[in-house]
């Protein structure tokens, strides 16, 4: 064939071949240019997406608009790969600093210069095109709303020195928490287009949680005494004739002429605090003389104690969730803590009862009866009796400072409020991590008891729980603390009542409800095991609702079996990171868990700040 082509003199093959070469070469040219155009288009898209994420991160650092645009352009050009930077132009539209939007927009123009297309167009006698235009854009929605609950251990062990630091754990915690809030607040303050971009709540916890005395009349508090456990430690049948306390339709009332003008008033734990009085002065006035003299004594009273703000744990299944309190279901309401006065008598080892803070009045030898004898609360304490404060008398086991609800830290006032609350924390009392965690979750909720959180389904908002503790969960038998248990309470009084008191209609006390732990065994170890199960319950429920959980174990010893269990519980509780992989298994996200020491706590909280920063810019 080739030989014939070469010998052919007619020129037909040459002409035909020449004509055919034009579209063939043109096709090749177009194929080459198309492949290169496709490659540069993809490179431009990649650079555009990368610049979007990087620029969003710059925005939350608080950089100026000029610097942000310059950064975006430089980052875009540096990642173009095969594309000549002079051939690509970037346009940046920042989120409005005044209102609405919250979206970073980047648009790119690529002017591709073909290699062969102009030559092919010249052969065809058509106008030459020196470039091919391509446009692309991307949008990044800034997740600039964040709600964070700081659930921080305020138990007595936080007064110890942090390992490797020379400072007390509480002081280290205050510094680290303050730095965390300041860091995130500084970033958030730049995001002016969204109201309350970052809010923090603070839940200090020890053996109980303090919801604040200003909530005494809140709708979610059991102000009428209707909750099934409101009166579980009170035996109103012990009241004398003429001064009875009688239940009616779920509410207890004063009944009898002996009450005078108080007859018909409700009787609750709140009213009991008001009944507790002490004599501060007494004046005797006498008339007549000799055998006809009549003397009367006038007393001046003062309060003995007022409610400190702590509440008991709700019964299962409401103990560790965000079920909104409702008067229609009294068990969902929150009951103020009131530590009953225990027996005045001492045991054979001369040990007193931990909760002995008021005169028994009755002289019976039955210590349980002395404890539940109610007339004593209505008899004033003698002159010289000092008033009781937090962690004393009826406020026993209530030691922590009040909850600070979600607060906008982008304002000077809000930031000062939260920092002040962190600074006022004090180390005292036991440890109930699940109780603190449950209340942290409640502060993030959009429903009562605090209802400051954004709707749970709001797009672009993250709810985060940060839980720190330096010890295992604790609930104590009286003997383990050096007290007697003559009244057979089986435990000290705390936020779950006495472990000898089963929940009405149940065969388990509130501490054991919702757990598989044997309720017949009353020991510190058993109490801790039940509370560890409660911790798992609240963590899994919070995560299932979409809350991100970060946990910190402070100075816990993995060689100690009890503390090792606490470490495992905290690690299991933590969510997985959205941005980091597990270094031991890259197929899994890294756990948001930090096993901190006193020496590393500050750096660990900086890691937490980085994680929170990342949450605000991914969309």
TrEMBL record:
**Pfam families according to UniProt:** Tad
Q: Which domain of life is it from?
A: Bacteria
Putative Flp pilus-assembly TadG-like N-terminal domain sequence ranges: 11-57
- Secretion signal: which residues? none
Q: Which ranges does the record mark as transmembrane?
A: 12-32
InterPro entries according to UniProt: Tad_N (IPR028087), vWFA_dom_sf (IPR036465)
Q: What is this protein called?
A: TadE/TadG family protein
| SUPFAM superfamilies named in the record | vWA-like
Gene3D superfamilies assigned to the protein according to its UniProt record, in alphabetical order: von Willebrand factor, type A domain (3.40.50.410)
- Which terms are listed as keywords in the entry? Membrane, Transmembrane, Transmembrane helix
Natural source organism: Neoaquamicrobium microcysteis
